[in-house]
Amino acid sequence: MGKRYGRSWALRDCSLELPAGRIAALVGPNGAGKSTLLHLAVGLLQPDTGWARVFGRDPRHDRAALADLGFVAQDTPLYPDFTATELITMGGRLNRRGWDAAIARDRLGRLGIPSDKPVGRLSGGQRAQVALALALAKRPRLLLLDEPVAALDPLARHEFMQALMGAVGEYGTTVLLSSHLLADLERVCDHLVLLHTSRVQLAGPVEELLAGHRRLIGPRLPDGAAVPGVASVIRASHTERQSTLLVRTDGPVDESHWAVHEITLEDLVLAHLGTHSPAEVAA
Ligand SMILES: Nc1ncnc2c1ncn2[C@@H]1O[C@H](COP(=O)(O)OP(=O)(O)OP(=O)(O)O)[C@@H](O)[C@H]1O
Question: What is the CA radius of gyration of the chain?
Fold first, then answer.
Protein backbone atom coordinates (compact mmCIF):
# COMPACT_ATOMS: atom_id res chain seq x y z
CA MET A 1 0.00 0.00 0.00
CA GLY A 2 1.01 3.64 -0.23
CA LYS A 3 0.06 6.98 1.23
CA ARG A 4 0.70 10.41 -0.23
CA TYR A 5 0.48 13.85 1.25
CA GLY A 6 0.03 16.14 -1.74
CA ARG A 7 2.71 15.05 -4.17
CA SER A 8 5.03 13.45 -1.62
CA TRP A 9 4.83 9.81 -0.71
CA ALA A 10 4.87 9.28 3.07
CA LEU A 11 4.79 5.53 2.50
CA ARG A 12 5.36 3.76 -0.78
CA ASP A 13 5.10 0.15 -2.05
CA CYS A 14 4.73 -0.97 1.51
CA SER A 15 3.94 -4.65 1.65
CA LEU A 16 4.24 -6.45 4.94
CA GLU A 17 2.57 -8.95 7.20
CA LEU A 18 2.94 -9.12 10.94
CA PRO A 19 3.33 -12.45 12.72
CA ALA A 20 0.52 -13.03 15.26
CA GLY A 21 1.42 -13.18 18.94
CA ARG A 22 4.76 -11.47 18.49
CA ILE A 23 6.26 -8.10 19.30
CA ALA A 24 7.35 -6.32 16.15
CA ALA A 25 9.60 -3.27 16.18
CA LEU A 26 8.92 -0.49 13.71
CA VAL A 27 12.07 1.55 13.26
CA GLY A 28 13.41 4.17 10.91
CA PRO A 29 14.68 7.74 10.87
CA ASN A 30 12.47 10.77 11.50
CA GLY A 31 9.99 11.17 8.67
CA ALA A 32 10.48 7.59 7.41
CA GLY A 33 6.74 6.88 7.53
CA LYS A 34 6.31 5.01 10.83
CA SER A 35 3.38 7.06 12.17
CA THR A 36 1.78 6.99 8.73
CA LEU A 37 1.97 3.19 8.67
CA LEU A 38 0.43 2.93 12.15
CA HIS A 39 -2.37 5.36 11.23
CA LEU A 40 -3.11 3.30 8.11
CA ALA A 41 -3.19 0.10 10.16
CA VAL A 42 -5.66 1.56 12.61
CA GLY A 43 -7.88 3.10 9.92
CA LEU A 44 -7.24 6.73 10.81
CA LEU A 45 -5.76 7.20 7.33
CA GLN A 46 -6.93 5.81 4.02
CA PRO A 47 -4.24 4.35 1.75
CA ASP A 48 -3.94 5.99 -1.69
CA THR A 49 -2.79 2.69 -3.18
CA GLY A 50 -3.39 -0.85 -1.96
CA TRP A 51 -5.07 -1.80 1.28
CA ALA A 52 -4.58 -2.50 4.97
CA ARG A 53 -6.26 -5.41 6.76
CA VAL A 54 -6.33 -6.28 10.43
CA PHE A 55 -7.21 -9.92 11.01
CA GLY A 56 -8.75 -9.89 7.54
CA ARG A 57 -10.86 -6.76 8.16
CA ASP A 58 -10.63 -3.25 6.77
CA PRO A 59 -9.96 -1.01 9.79
CA ARG A 60 -11.15 2.09 7.92
CA HIS A 61 -14.60 0.85 6.94
CA ASP A 62 -15.40 -2.11 9.16
CA ARG A 63 -16.11 -0.89 12.67
CA ALA A 64 -15.95 -4.42 14.03
CA ALA A 65 -12.22 -4.40 13.23
CA LEU A 66 -11.70 -1.65 15.80
CA ALA A 67 -12.71 -3.93 18.67
CA ASP A 68 -9.53 -5.93 18.00
CA LEU A 69 -7.29 -2.86 17.93
CA GLY A 70 -5.51 -0.84 20.56
CA PHE A 71 -3.62 2.25 19.50
CA VAL A 72 -1.55 4.75 21.43
CA ALA A 73 -0.62 7.70 19.23
CA GLN A 74 2.72 9.46 19.53
CA ASP A 75 1.40 12.40 21.53
CA THR A 76 -0.78 10.14 23.74
CA PRO A 77 -3.93 12.22 23.26
CA LEU A 78 -6.22 11.96 26.31
CA TYR A 79 -9.05 14.21 27.46
CA PRO A 80 -7.05 16.54 29.74
CA ASP A 81 -9.88 17.32 32.18
CA PHE A 82 -10.58 13.67 32.93
CA THR A 83 -8.84 11.76 35.70
CA ALA A 84 -7.32 8.33 35.05
CA THR A 85 -10.17 6.78 37.05
CA GLU A 86 -12.73 8.50 34.82
CA LEU A 87 -10.88 7.45 31.68
CA ILE A 88 -10.84 3.86 32.89
CA THR A 89 -14.61 4.01 33.45
CA MET A 90 -15.07 5.58 30.03
CA GLY A 91 -12.91 2.87 28.45
CA GLY A 92 -15.19 0.27 29.99
CA ARG A 93 -18.30 1.92 28.51
CA LEU A 94 -16.75 2.25 25.05
CA ASN A 95 -15.25 -1.25 24.98
CA ARG A 96 -17.78 -3.60 26.44
CA ARG A 97 -16.01 -6.70 25.16
CA GLY A 98 -12.86 -7.74 26.94
CA TRP A 99 -12.25 -4.55 28.94
CA ASP A 100 -10.35 -5.27 32.15
CA ALA A 101 -10.35 -2.15 34.34
CA ALA A 102 -8.27 -3.92 36.98
CA ILE A 103 -5.31 -4.13 34.57
CA ALA A 104 -5.24 -0.34 34.24
CA ARG A 105 -5.99 0.38 37.91
CA ASP A 106 -3.36 -2.07 39.19
CA ARG A 107 -0.75 -0.77 36.78
CA LEU A 108 -1.26 2.87 37.67
CA GLY A 109 -1.39 2.02 41.39
CA ARG A 110 1.86 0.08 41.17
CA LEU A 111 3.53 2.90 39.27
CA GLY A 112 2.27 5.51 41.74
CA ILE A 113 0.46 7.51 39.06
CA PRO A 114 -2.26 9.69 40.66
CA SER A 115 -5.58 8.47 39.35
CA ASP A 116 -7.69 11.28 40.84
CA LYS A 117 -5.91 14.18 39.12
CA PRO A 118 -6.95 15.47 35.68
CA VAL A 119 -4.50 13.87 33.27
CA GLY A 120 -3.80 17.29 31.75
CA ARG A 121 -1.98 18.09 34.99
CA LEU A 122 0.21 14.98 35.00
CA SER A 123 3.78 14.93 33.66
CA GLY A 124 4.34 13.80 30.07
CA GLY A 125 5.68 10.43 31.25
CA GLN A 126 2.77 9.92 33.66
CA ARG A 127 0.30 10.74 30.90
CA ALA A 128 2.00 8.23 28.63
CA GLN A 129 1.65 5.62 31.38
CA VAL A 130 -2.09 6.34 31.63
CA ALA A 131 -2.50 5.95 27.85
CA LEU A 132 -0.54 2.68 27.89
CA ALA A 133 -2.52 1.34 30.85
CA LEU A 134 -5.78 2.07 28.99
CA ALA A 135 -4.45 0.34 25.87
CA LEU A 136 -3.47 -2.75 27.88
CA ALA A 137 -6.86 -2.80 29.68
CA LYS A 138 -8.60 -3.11 26.32
CA ARG A 139 -6.74 -6.41 25.80
CA PRO A 140 -6.72 -5.90 22.03
CA ARG A 141 -5.62 -8.64 19.65
CA LEU A 142 -3.36 -6.08 17.95
CA LEU A 143 -1.71 -3.32 19.89
CA LEU A 144 -0.13 -0.48 17.91
CA LEU A 145 2.12 1.87 19.80
CA ASP A 146 3.77 4.97 18.35
CA GLU A 147 6.93 5.68 20.35
CA PRO A 148 5.30 4.54 23.58
CA VAL A 149 8.41 4.73 25.74
CA ALA A 150 9.89 7.99 24.47
CA ALA A 151 8.63 9.95 27.49
CA LEU A 152 9.44 7.29 30.07
CA ASP A 153 12.49 7.13 32.34
CA PRO A 154 14.79 4.11 31.86
CA LEU A 155 13.30 2.11 34.72
CA ALA A 156 9.75 2.77 33.53
CA ARG A 157 10.80 1.81 29.98
CA HIS A 158 12.18 -1.47 31.20
CA GLU A 159 9.05 -2.15 33.26
CA PHE A 160 6.81 -1.30 30.32
CA MET A 161 8.64 -3.63 27.96
CA GLN A 162 8.23 -6.41 30.53
CA ALA A 163 4.50 -5.64 30.71
CA LEU A 164 4.25 -5.89 26.94
CA MET A 165 5.93 -9.29 26.99
CA GLY A 166 3.49 -10.28 29.74
CA ALA A 167 0.51 -9.26 27.58
CA VAL A 168 1.87 -11.22 24.63
CA GLY A 169 2.44 -14.27 26.83
CA GLU A 170 -0.90 -14.08 28.60
CA TYR A 171 -3.33 -12.95 25.90
CA GLY A 172 -1.42 -13.71 22.70
CA THR A 173 -1.49 -10.01 21.82
CA THR A 174 0.26 -9.00 18.61
CA VAL A 175 2.26 -5.81 19.09
CA LEU A 176 3.74 -3.34 16.63
CA LEU A 177 5.67 -0.57 18.32
CA SER A 178 7.71 2.21 16.84
CA SER A 179 10.74 3.44 18.72
CA HIS A 180 14.13 4.98 18.23
CA LEU A 181 15.50 3.15 21.29
CA LEU A 182 17.07 0.17 19.61
CA ALA A 183 18.64 -1.29 22.75
CA ASP A 184 15.18 -1.54 24.38
CA LEU A 185 13.75 -3.14 21.28
CA GLU A 186 16.51 -5.70 21.04
CA ARG A 187 15.50 -7.17 24.39
CA VAL A 188 11.85 -7.76 23.57
CA CYS A 189 11.13 -7.67 19.86
CA ASP A 190 11.08 -10.80 17.77
CA HIS A 191 10.25 -9.12 14.48
CA LEU A 192 11.70 -6.08 12.76
CA VAL A 193 10.24 -3.66 10.24
CA LEU A 194 12.72 -1.04 9.09
CA LEU A 195 11.39 1.90 7.12
CA HIS A 196 13.66 4.25 5.24
CA THR A 197 12.61 7.11 2.99
CA SER A 198 9.00 5.93 2.86
CA ARG A 199 9.80 2.32 1.95
CA VAL A 200 10.25 -0.96 3.78
CA GLN A 201 14.00 -1.43 3.74
CA LEU A 202 14.13 -4.62 5.76
CA ALA A 203 11.55 -6.85 7.47
CA GLY A 204 11.66 -10.24 9.12
CA PRO A 205 12.21 -12.20 12.31
CA VAL A 206 14.99 -10.55 14.35
CA GLU A 207 16.75 -13.84 15.06
CA GLU A 208 16.82 -14.73 11.37
CA LEU A 209 18.01 -11.28 10.34
CA LEU A 210 20.80 -11.28 12.93
CA ALA A 211 21.81 -14.84 12.00
CA GLY A 212 22.05 -13.76 8.36
CA HIS A 213 24.38 -10.82 8.96
CA ARG A 214 27.97 -10.68 10.16
CA ARG A 215 30.73 -8.16 10.60
CA LEU A 216 33.95 -9.22 8.90
CA ILE A 217 37.31 -7.73 9.66
CA GLY A 218 40.27 -8.71 7.54
CA PRO A 219 43.04 -7.58 5.19
CA ARG A 220 42.13 -4.79 2.80
CA LEU A 221 39.73 -6.11 0.20
CA PRO A 222 40.56 -5.11 -3.38
CA ASP A 223 37.84 -2.95 -4.95
CA GLY A 224 35.08 -5.05 -6.49
CA ALA A 225 36.39 -8.34 -5.08
CA ALA A 226 33.77 -10.91 -4.07
CA VAL A 227 33.89 -12.70 -0.73
CA PRO A 228 32.74 -16.35 -0.69
CA GLY A 229 29.78 -16.79 1.69
CA VAL A 230 28.73 -13.15 1.31
CA ALA A 231 25.49 -12.41 -0.53
CA SER A 232 25.82 -8.65 -0.27
CA VAL A 233 27.90 -6.03 1.47
CA ILE A 234 25.63 -3.67 3.35
CA ARG A 235 28.37 -1.32 4.43
CA ALA A 236 32.13 -1.29 4.07
CA SER A 237 34.89 0.81 5.52
CA HIS A 238 38.54 0.51 4.68
CA THR A 239 41.89 1.61 5.97
CA GLU A 240 45.07 1.13 3.99
CA ARG A 241 45.52 -2.38 5.35
CA GLN A 242 42.17 -3.46 6.69
CA SER A 243 38.57 -3.80 5.57
CA THR A 244 35.55 -3.92 7.87
CA LEU A 245 32.41 -5.17 6.21
CA LEU A 246 28.89 -5.56 7.45
CA VAL A 247 27.49 -8.26 5.22
CA ARG A 248 24.50 -10.40 4.53
CA THR A 249 25.77 -13.97 4.39
CA ASP A 250 24.60 -16.87 2.26
CA GLY A 251 27.10 -19.47 3.41
CA PRO A 252 30.19 -20.02 5.56
CA VAL A 253 32.83 -17.29 5.45
CA ASP A 254 36.53 -18.28 5.48
CA GLU A 255 37.43 -17.70 9.13
CA SER A 256 41.14 -18.17 8.47
CA HIS A 257 40.98 -14.99 6.39
CA TRP A 258 38.30 -12.96 8.22
CA ALA A 259 37.54 -12.31 11.86
CA VAL A 260 33.80 -13.00 11.85
CA HIS A 261 31.62 -11.22 14.44
CA GLU A 262 27.95 -11.41 15.31
CA ILE A 263 26.11 -8.10 15.22
CA THR A 264 23.47 -6.41 17.36
CA LEU A 265 20.08 -5.12 16.26
CA GLU A 266 21.49 -1.61 16.48
CA ASP A 267 24.40 -2.53 14.17
CA LEU A 268 21.93 -4.09 11.73
CA VAL A 269 19.57 -1.14 11.64
CA LEU A 270 22.29 1.49 11.41
CA ALA A 271 24.13 -0.43 8.69
CA HIS A 272 20.97 -0.60 6.60
CA LEU A 273 20.51 3.12 7.15
CA GLY A 274 24.06 3.69 5.98
CA THR A 275 25.69 4.78 9.23
CA HIS A 276 27.87 3.32 11.97
CA SER A 277 26.68 2.23 15.41
CA PRO A 278 28.28 3.96 18.44
CA ALA A 279 29.98 0.66 19.39
CA GLU A 280 31.60 0.49 15.96
CA VAL A 281 32.72 4.07 16.14
CA ALA A 282 34.28 3.39 19.54
CA ALA A 283 36.00 0.27 18.18
N1 LIG B 1 -0.35 15.60 7.86
C2 LIG B 1 0.69 15.62 7.04
N3 LIG B 1 0.74 16.43 5.98
C4 LIG B 1 1.78 16.46 5.12
N5 LIG B 1 2.86 15.64 5.24
C6 LIG B 1 2.89 14.80 6.28
C7 LIG B 1 1.82 14.74 7.23
N8 LIG B 1 2.12 13.79 8.14
C9 LIG B 1 3.33 13.30 7.79
N10 LIG B 1 3.79 13.89 6.68
C11 LIG B 1 5.05 13.58 5.97
O12 LIG B 1 5.08 12.19 5.71
C13 LIG B 1 6.37 11.66 5.95
C14 LIG B 1 6.28 10.54 6.97
O15 LIG B 1 5.90 11.08 8.22
P16 LIG B 1 5.66 10.17 9.51
O17 LIG B 1 5.08 11.05 10.57
O18 LIG B 1 4.91 8.95 9.11
O19 LIG B 1 7.17 9.77 9.89
P20 LIG B 1 7.76 9.03 11.18
O21 LIG B 1 8.62 7.93 10.67
O22 LIG B 1 6.66 8.66 12.10
O23 LIG B 1 8.67 10.17 11.83
P24 LIG B 1 9.11 10.47 13.35
O25 LIG B 1 10.13 9.43 13.73
O26 LIG B 1 9.72 11.82 13.23
O27 LIG B 1 7.88 10.45 14.21
C28 LIG B 1 7.25 12.82 6.38
O29 LIG B 1 7.95 13.27 5.25
C30 LIG B 1 6.27 13.86 6.85
O31 LIG B 1 6.76 15.16 6.63
Answer: 21
CA distance 185 to 182: 5
Pick among 3.90.1300.10, 3.40.50.300, 1.20.200.10, 3.40.109.10: CATH of 3-204: 3.40.50.300
Q: Is 36 in the pocket of ligand 1 (CB under 6 A)?
A: yes
What's the pTM?
Answer: 0.90
Ligand 1, atom 31, residue with closest C-alpha = 31
- Tens of pLDDT, residues 192-216: 999 998 999 999 999 999 999 999 9
Residue 120 amino acid letter = G
ipTM of this complex prediction, to 2 decimal places? 0.97
Closest residue CA from atom 2 of ligand 1: 5
Ligand 1 contact via 30 beta carbon (within 6 Å): yes
